[in-house]
Amino acid sequence: MPKFKHPGVYIQEIPTINTSIVAVPTAVPAFIGYTQSAACQKDGDLHLTPTRITSFAEYCRLFGQSEAEPLHLELTSTPAGIVLKSTTPVLPRQMMWYAIRLFFDNGGGECYVVSTGNYQSSLTLSALSDGVQVTAKVDEITLLLAPESVLLAAADYQQLVNFMLSECNRLADRMALFDLPDGDKTLSASLLSTNRAYLGNTHLDSGACYYPFLTTTQRWQSARYHQHITVSLDNGKTTQLSQLKTDDPALFKVIESLLADLYVSLPASVAVAGAIALVDATEGVWKAPANVQLRGIKHPMISISDTANEALNTDSSTGKSINAIREFSGRGVRIWGARTLAGNDNEWRYISTRRLASMVQESVQKSLNWAVFEPNDANTWARITHSVEQFLISLWKLGALTAASPDDAFYVRCGLGTTMTANDVHQGIMNIEIGMAVIRPAEFIILKLQLHSQQA
Question: Which mean pLDDT values do the consecutive 10-residue runs of the chain (456 residues) have?
């Protein structure tokens, strides 16, 4: 609008272009899975719709609660009395309610939920794949999780992992977090090799994997509903818990006391996603999400020794690093690894490096939209270079880049003879090269971006 100086005379305001780089959010996970409901205005209107939530209460309002599901207890008699030998299933089939709660308990903030069906729906590769696919519509998402994937058949799990990794690689702005399907078992060399094989062989830098499953402080919802619980005694007899209340009140009371100490186990990745959000908010995306204490966890389902940890962390043949969750006396349960699946890749071995690079690339790409409407000339290239340099200086000051001075911490190139040919300029192509000295692996990583001028 014109600005009047005095009657009959006005000065036309010339719009200014904001050339500063604004950092994009870095820890916005999408949880893909089955929910009790998916309703905002009407039943089912949120089905396969990425929906942003900021609290567990909001999740419950839109996607419902957890319901009682069949639970089988195998008991055995010992000199000390009757003890619980095993629980079936190991993980709840209705996992999302527990998972979202654990995410927020560990410092998670905003996230997206994609409901792929209700609790009566069959768990299928097709439904989870559809859920992954629709997340591409939301540019804000930076992490992908499908915790129920560990319940799929091995071939379906492998196919879903490959699809999630390919989507993360294609979009170049997110990572996938996985769990080993045998997260409740002690891994022999052969079983570890089998689980590694499930993780595919391509785009490994776009994902990270965690082991073992974690026993949480959340109680099974089924424990409140005796008619959903069956009990096997070591005499071979199986009965409903509700029937025992009449047939054997003394045994019923013993089992009730065992139920009071029965806690839900979950894949570790959901807690890790919350910890990543907390680390990003308090320290920055460049801080490795490791040596972080997890909340709401009683203990890992499997105790990991230093030797086992080393076998998880490195693999000379496949390079697929698995991040351990370990419990330490006096220090609690902690994330004890910060590697992507690309454990043999010197450039993209670390989660923090991969995520920092993605953040820088996405932030620069989005913030330089103004440049596509400018002439593809030296003046525009200089403004681009200056904007990116100022952004990287701010990251260096925060400790994201390792060097004594900005000159040693990064470089930015954009211009004829350095990143562009005369033919590139003629076609309106602006190439930008960014080199950053990241903390890990303590050497320069190179990012290459391309803009297309509308004035070509």
Answer: 47 58 95 96 94 98 92 88 89 95 97 97 97 97 98 98 97 97 96 95 96 96 81 85 88 88 95 98 94 97 95 87 96 96 92 96 94 93 96 95 92 96 94 91 84 75
Q: How far apart are CA 452 and CA 431, in angstroms?
A: 9
Task: Let me know: does 350 contact 339? Beta carbons within 8 Å.
Answer: yes
* Of 288, 264, 260, the residue nearest 276 (C-alpha): 288
Tokens at 135, concatenated: 């997340």
Token code pair at residue 76 = 């055995």
Q: Which two tokens stand for residue 195?
A: 């689980």
Q: Which domains does the chain have, with CATH numbers?
A: 29-67+89-219+263-351 (3.40.50.11780), 368-452 (3.30.360.90)
**Is 0.90 surpassed by the pTM of this model?**
yes
User: Half-sphere exposure of 7 toward its Cβ, with a 13 Å CA cutoff?
Assistant: 0
In this structure, are residues 292 and 318 in contact, taking their beta carbons and an 8 Å threshold? Answer: no
Q: 97 and 36 in contact (C-beta within 8 Å)?
A: yes
CB atoms within 10 A of CB 64: 19
Q: What are phi and psi of 317, to 5 degrees?
A: -85, -50
- Specify whether the backbone of 236 is left (phi greater than 0), alpha (psi in -120 to 50) or beta: left
Q: What is the dihedral of CA 428, 433, 434, 435, to 10 degrees?
A: 180
